[in-house]
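Input record (Table S2, row 968):
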Amino acid sequence: MPSIANLFSTRRPTLGNLEKHGPDIAGTPDIESKKSPTQSQPVAREQQEQLICAILSRFAQVPVSAIFVMEPGWNPSGLSDEQASLVLRTHGPNIPVAERPLAALQILWGAIANPFNILLTILAVISAATKQIPTFAVMMAMVFASTGLRYWQELKSMIQAVNLIKSVTTNTRVLRYRASGPEELEIDQRDVVPGDIIAVTSGDVFPGDCILITAEAVTITQASLTGEMMPIEKTVRLAAPLPGETLDLLHNDNVCLAGTSVVTGNGHALVVSTGKDTYMASIASELAKQRPENATQIGIRKVSYVLMGFMAVMAPIVFIVQGAVSKNWKGAVMFAIAIAVGITPEMLPMIVTSNLALSAVRVARKKVIVKRFDAIQSLGAVRILCSDKTGTLTADHVRISMSTTGAGGLSQLPIELAYINSSLQTGSRSPIDHAIVDFVNESEQDTFTYIPRDGWVKQGEVPFDSSRRLLSVLVSRPGGDGSEGLLITKGAVEEVLDVCVSTYNHHPSPSSEASKPLGLDVSPSMTSFLTASERQKILETAQRLNEEGLRLVAVACREQLIKPFMTISCSDESELTFIGFIGLLDPLKPDAAQAIKDLAALNVQVRILTGDAPAVAAKVARDLGLIPSRQQLSTEDDVEAFSSSKGEEGLILTGVQLAALVDDQDAYKDAIDRCIIFAKLSPYQKLEVVKALRAGDGGRAVAFLGDGVNDALAIRGADVGISVDSGTDIAKEAADVILLEKSLGVVADGVVEGRITLINTLKYIKMATSSNFGNIFSVLVASAWLPYQPMLPLQLLVQNLLYDFSQASIPWDNVDPEYLEAPKTWGAKSIIRFMVCMGPFSSPFDITTFCINWFHYGIRTVDSPLVPRAQTNWFLEGSLTQLFIIHFLRTGKLPFIQSRASVPVVCTTFGIAGIAIAIPYMPKVNTALHLTPPEPIFFAYLLGMITGYALVVHVAKTIYQLAFKEWL
Ligand SMILES: Nc1ncnc2c1ncn2[C@@H]1O[C@H](COP(=O)(O)OP(=O)(O)OP(=O)(O)O)[C@@H](O)[C@H]1O
Ligand SMILES: [Mg+2]
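Output record (adenosine-5'-triphosphate complex):
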């Protein structure tokens, strides 16, 4: 690859120019300050896009060399340190979209604009208009209290979210100008500024909107912007602008937008815009909207629809029945509205947010970072965890174990050639390349016995990609005139064999090896034709080494005459001579087997999806207990059963077999369901398997854990994409969850947290919906029977608010361990069943209270002076039964004895029950609410009713669990 310094003359950038540049680019119309994307209207969005296009097209539509003439402050050798820090100061840090918090005002608006507040405000205005000032004051206090609570929770959660994301670091390689030549540094992507020259290779994410200035077989994916996963080719622009040429941001050949990532190849790019000036920032709100709803969001929506349906039916019925019975139509309107407010689960958004934030913070202590809070709930729902092999199951300490010929005899030659290839390649350094280079560097100086170690000069490169599984470098021989070259290719065994025509005739000792003065001789005299049987023998050796757990890299080469300005491509990877293998050992992670057991206990199955050979993956799976080894099959029957199900072979599927099954859908589905190991998969096949697993069994949640460029598609395609902090940027960008420590064990912790969150959210929903449902019956009976309002609208609202406050502590509640044993998803059906079955049990006790009022106190007319007493009695009975029953509904077991609520739940339920009892005794408050102290004897009735209700609920709960085999 021509170096950057060769491409452009190294000019000393001047600070003066750069200062001029500062306001030029940084000061180009401030996109966000004109109109925030969240307020975006189509026109504003178009304008933003035009502005971004205008900035980019200045540099994107001219030949690359002209850019640096147009902007003399910029230099192909990079900015100097002073320049970079000056621009950073004037332009501000390059904060990625995910780290940019929502404005506090936006959150406040979200908390204010909800149906609960709207209904309450309408009610309050009606009260004020009818001169009921205390009612108005109480209602407005409720609006402020509920809004304040939600605002506070959401603001806190958002700050926590941003802080969590900040703990995941993304580095960028930038060039810094030095008098001696450009120096490559790794800096935090937040410090990248316009004018920076960055070096990118496969797996890197562009930190800002960039223009490519050098490129070697670069393809990028724009999935983060468009959802389109197919990589597209990007090149350097050498041509002058055409008349009338316009810039198409997403399809321009030399523009790489912030957030997009390099799939293959490598090169350098000039950063033109960063932070809020990037295209990604301008479409951030649209991107958030485009994200498909997850199970939780769908569940919440469905439940909300059911409740809204209830509201739409119940409110008019209550209005008509009560209006007709009492003839007080004005009072009936207010009462019906209060009932409607009661049915609204106004605390739901707040409960969901606090639940998720709480779990996210808890898992962060275990070094698991959720990029989007709702991913934690999806993690709780996961039934299958797919993982790639290296780094999560294995320790990722890849070490060279042996260097052999195709027949398995030891030989130094493969490692010597591989070293030249690995040390000169400039693509992303895989653990394999690191291992090869480190092994040779750490060995004695005289390790190289066949070929010279130094002096090889790289003339061309075809970077590694996971579909081809080959990596080639073209080198000129040491000490030669530069025209005699060698193409050295290494890669997966079958893929290398496919491009070989001969094998090298190894000699027993290096001295007898016919080596050229300029390195290795692979002329026809030194090689034999690669026959089918020879090929088979090599594959058998590979299989044997794989079965021992060795990961293999095959090495091949060919003589190549080097011509001036020569470039090489995949088509040059042909007619090679097979040299041998390098065997690499990657021990298992010590905690992986235990983590797999923990996941199995949580009913999460683990599958391996790898690009590596099936035999190595099978060895890993056997050692981890994922597939039974012969010793583990204790009885002859076990062995027979295992063998009749095609044994181990029946559990492994390779990419080639998968492709062959595509036309037979039944066999395809069966294989996907049965197999534990999917080997030799291309990145697309990893995605395909994830999709097929998700679709299986009527739809199930699938997580994918991986760290490589070849995992990014599957990470994006899974319900929960998981990556590791040390993984490639592209994988981290695609992931929903990032593990700061590479360990499968923490995934199990995340799954448990996800289930706790979901169970606590379900608790709230089931309690709120069933208690509302029960109230509806009572209200209907009361409306049809009692000539007076059974409770004033204001009293209903206060009762509702008290209940809401008591439930605000549910995210902090304990969860019975048995609920954590199986994956859990939202089921609107299960919620509705719970509501219908458990809700009505409160009504008989409400009706008992009406009877006490009617028969014991003789309150039978609308003008009875004792009406406030009747209303107080129902207020107390309704509030206290609802509060105590929380303890019965939160668990399928016996409350207080078999399962205890957490301290916050106990404190809030009992505390609020105390407040409810105290309210009728509080001067001023009681007058405002038209409540009066009850007769002491009523507390005896109350105790009886609460005990009776608890008994009935416990019996109903037992029957419910027997019938439906579930509770929460
Ligand atoms: N840098 C490299 N140079 C040459 N060959 C490589 C290189 N990296 C991988 N290979 C070959 O490609 C095969 C597949 O590896 P790849 O890393 O693409 O798969 P993977 O799915 O990431 O594997 P794993 O599950 O172990 O992470 C390897 O077994 C090896 O033979
Ligand atoms: Mg990998």
